[in-house]
Amino acid sequence: MSDRTKPAVIIDCDPGHDDVMAILLAARTLDVRGLTTVFGNVDLEQTTRNARQTLEFAQLTSIPVVKGLAHPLVRDIRHGAHVHGESGLDGPTLAPPTMPLGDGLATEFIIQQSHIVENLSLLPIGPLTNVAAALRLDPTLPSRIKEMSIMGGSLTSGNATPTAEFNIWCDPEAAHVAFTAGIPIKMVGLNVTRQVMATPERRAQIRAMNSVASRHVADMLDFYGERYRAISGLPGGAMHDPLAVAALVDPDIVRFEPMHVAIELHGAHTYGMTVCDHRHLPAHDPAAGRLTPPRDANANAEVAVAVDSDRFWQLFLDVLATYP
Ligand code: BDR
Ligand code: CA
Q1: DSSP label at 295?
Q2: Fewest Cβ atoms closer than 10 Å to its Cβ: which of 43, 88, 267, 323?
């Protein structure tokens, strides 16, 4: 049953280890009207399978899963199996899914829910292909969407390329459609998500909870964390996607500043970059303290500039402890 007292969201996802963390966090803190799936970390069949497996092990099968699009709007398809494994969720042994898929297509589901649910928000944590397709199908959609909390982009460097973050880089043209639609946007990018790491200590805390969900999560984060360490030298996997959820749950976890964000669609070295105009910011370093910058009149997004990692972990661990 959905809880009408919480903010209503659709999670558009490509699970993916950190997508699973986002789903678990959101299902207890927000009114999740459905998961729509998209290609991304792995292909669409597999991300859809992973979404169903997640809802099943977490006993959340009242949330519908609706399949979305399998290919980017324009560019060639790319995946992220080098980070998440061939299944997209390597690590734990999960039972094959049995819950039925929701009817129809993700784009139709998003539009239909926007008519039924007042103040619906979108939580895109994969490539923005479904969101862009829904916006193209129904140009009136922005008037019925409260906001989008997007995991994507970066105020600093990328991960898929030196300049582009994976979700945006997978479908930059779709990201352009989403960022120019006029919907209020929270952009939760790599500059903050890379500060929230599932270190071996955090994984041990999770494993010690000793529930079915926590064991699966610990197995996922062990696999994901080792891949991260091998690829980037970081001390664990970054909790990218759940931070976009946390931004809707607790305003003291992520701090935002208004900026204009353009998606680079032409650069040989910058294709898929989120070009954030932060010239008005007095300082990029949160440690330098907060001055009040003048509001950027052209701003189309609130861009995450700082994060309280300990506060995020407190929330995440408290929520995870509620799962069987
Ligand atoms: C994003 O890319 C994916 O690998 C993760 O699930 C996350 O959504 C981080 O760049
Ligand atoms: Ca994702």
Answers
A1: P
A2: 267
Nearest ligand to the CA of 231 is: 1
Mean pLDDT score across all residues of the chain: 94
* Residue to mutate, 167, 171, 190, 274, ligand 1, most ligand atoms under 8 Å from C-beta: 167
Extents of the domains making up the chain: 8-320
Burial bucket for residue 82 (CB in 10 Å: 0-12, 13-18, 19+):
exposed
**Residue 166 C-alpha to ligand 1 middle, in angstroms?**
6
Task: With CA atoms as reference, report the closest residue to 169 among 184, 155, 154.
Answer: 154
Q: What is the pLDDT of residue 285?
A: 53
Kindly state the tokens that stand for 156: 């600093």
Residue 269 bears catalytic tag: no
Closest listed ligand to the CA of 166: 1
How much distance in Å is there from the Cα of 234 to the middle of ligand 1? 15
Whether pLDDT at 93 is above 80: yes
Instruction: Cite the DSSP H helix spans in the chain.
Output: 17-29, 44-57, 81-84, 106-116, 129-137, 166-170, 172-179, 190-193, 200-207, 212-232, 240-249, 309-320
The pLDDT value recorded for residue 296 is 73
What tokens were used for 143?
Answer: 């008037």
pLDDT band, very low/low/confident/very high, at 64 (cuts 50, 70, 90): very high
DSSP state of 165: -
Å from CA of 137 to ligand 1 middle: 26
C-alpha 261/C-alpha 276 separation (Å) is 4
> Measuring from each residue's beta carbon to the nearest atom of ligand 1, which residues come in under 6 Å?
16, 18-19, 41, 80, 83, 125-126, 151, 159, 165-167, 240-241
Tell me the pLDDT tens digit for each residue of 142-151: 999 999 999 9
